Amino acid sequence: MRHPFLAALCRALGALGVATLRYEFAYMEARQRRIDPPALLHARVREAVAAARAQELPLFAGGKSMGGRMTSQAQALEPLPGVRGIAFVGFPLHPAREPGVDRAGHLARVQVPMLFLQGTRDELADLELLRGVLRSLPLATLRAFDDADHSFHVRKKSGRTDAQVIAELAQAFAEWARRLT
């Protein structure tokens, strides 16, 4: 939750009037390498949603990479109270160099709008595979960021900076969320 990318994205969202709540999974708080089982990850997502819901603001959930995937899994298992939509900042569709769509199977059970913010060079989400998955999800929106990788870094030859991409991510989310509120 203290990663410079997430901190910068939260600042960019704040500049657009979007409040954020960051949290960590228990294994991260304990500084362990071994990832918690899905049930514990889903429980932490629910705790964070409950804390955010107490603020009585329009509520969207999601996260970066695995955080977004765990949020959507929790929503697919049992709707997250008050959540109007889920935003994925780099959905990890498959492991690097192992293209597949198995990690997307639960998305058909998510019954709220979904926003997929993806880099075109993301090694964890082949865009053609992701587009194929999203075609069957009427509540899904894809916004691709040219030349960005899974961490949303762009090469110098792109003519953009990482900070510009973060601003674009924030703007894309803010516009999508405003359409839904």
Structure in words:
With 181 residues, this protein is α/β, with parallel strands linked by helices. It has a single domain, classed as Alpha/Beta hydrolase fold, catalytic domain (Rossmann fold). It contains 6 helices and 4 strands, in the order αααβαββαβα. It has a 4-stranded parallel sheet with strand order 1-2-3-4, sandwiched between helices. Helix 4 links the parallel strand 1 and strand 2. Helix 1 packs across helix 6 and helix 3 crosses helix 4. The protein starts with a helix and ends with a helix. The mean pLDDT is 96.
Strand order of the largest sheet: 1-2-3-4
Number of strands: 4
In CATH terms, what is the architecture? 3-Layer(aba) Sandwich
Number of helices: 6
Q: How many domain regions? A: 1
The N- to C-terminal Cα distance equals 26 Å
Query: Segments where pLDDT lies below 50 for 5+ residues?
Result: none
- Briefly note the CATH topology name: Rossmann fold
What proportion strand?
Answer: 5-15%
Overall shape: it is globular
Q: What class, by secondary structure content?
A: alpha/beta
Tags for this entry?
181 residues, alpha/beta, Rossmann fold, four-stranded parallel β-sheet, 6 helices, globular
Give a short synopsis of this structure.
With 181 residues, the chain is an alpha/beta fold. It has helices at 4-15, 26-29, 38-53, 66-77, 127-135, 162-180, and strands at 59-64, 83-89, 114-119, 140-145. Strands 1-2-3-4 form a four-stranded parallel sheet, sandwiched between helices.
